[in-house]
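Model the whole thing, not chain by chain.
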Amino acid sequence: MAEVKMFGAWGSPFSKRVEMGLKLKGVEYEYIEEDLNNKSSLLLNYNPVHKKVPVLVHNGKPIAESLIILEYIDEAWEGPDILPKDPYERANARFWAKFIDEKCMPPMWKACWSIGEERAKAKEEASEALKFLENEINGQKFFGGDTIGLVDIAANFIGYWFRIAEEIVGLELMTQDKYPNLCKWAEEYCKCSFVKENLPPKDKLADIFKGIIQAQSAPK
Amino acid sequence: MADELVLLDVHVSMFGMRVRIALAEKGIEYEYREENLANKSTLLLETNPVHKKIPVLIHNGKPICESLIIVEYIDEVWKDKSPLLPSDPYQRAKARFWADFVDKKVLFFFCSCFCLSVFVKKKIWRTKGEELEAAKKELIDALELLEGELGDKPYFNGDNFGFPDLAIITFYSWFHTYETCANFSIEKHCPKLIKWAKRCMERESVSKSLADPVTVYEFVLMLKKKYGH
């Protein structure tokens, strides 16, 4: 019998991406919550290179890096497509997923937790990056078209985590007037029952974010 | 209708080389266009407005960007000739993992060591002695990890040359530059990696696609001079 295990962290968007992928395909799996401040020896054995979550273990074989895991899930199991079938559209999906990881998430996250000039710079960078996504979604329901696909799954941070953090820190980056398409996408995305099941509770996340602010402003 | 393929590239780019190897492995004809990164063509800016970088493969007018994404595209479109990725999903995931590792770890250190602001956003140009040593150590650690992963296999892909080999081998053309600039020997730390590299170089697709190491070094010297080094 196939054995599927997943090492994750409840608050991690990367971890939730993998869970979304597994649930999309209807794969049963054992979930193992990792304490990121005290990583298990199992995790470190399965991912010695990066030592991070998420890690998917299928029949004893580990796969790491969320986007790579999602492609694996798409190939290993039948069910709704995570990536499109057409090679050009697949390349496009991969491009935007990578773009989100490399060009959107880092400055967006930095903009939340930095101050002064550093925040202004990160905000500028994030704004530019989001403009491209705004054009790409272009009135479609999802990046994947009518149904959720790789890019939508990859954009979970933008659709959910970031909106919560942004509100708490008073950032005003992904605003309705500047990014109407993206905001509409985020609304649809979070309303979608399938996505809702794979998001951490808002209040728990908010507590974490408020904790970060407190730690930052604590006397050193 | 014959396929129309144009590759926007720079001869010394390890990313461009990956695409060249893939096209050569599949025996695909294409038009090569050398870009001047200090004066990018309109075509490049139009086909890659997001990153404005090479390589860009334009297939019947449709652009594909990012070297590993281009290579997978080539492998999927020309799937009946010389497959680059294995067919087993787990082996494919492993192949993608190591290609991704190289991009994440090795490139950054190469660039920060040698201040290649042409390939990376214009960050610090000069690294001080200590920073260079630290970056060198990180690079060696990463290469030793690769050496460990290779083990006694003839290729990262197993018995046959494939996607992860293609992704990693192109950095080999830059080894001479790094060794010279930072005064160390990669072979001393990673003898198996060097043996593997020479094995890959026996393939015509690789030897014809990689830039000559001396050309790469001269290119870097030219950059250093140009940017007032």
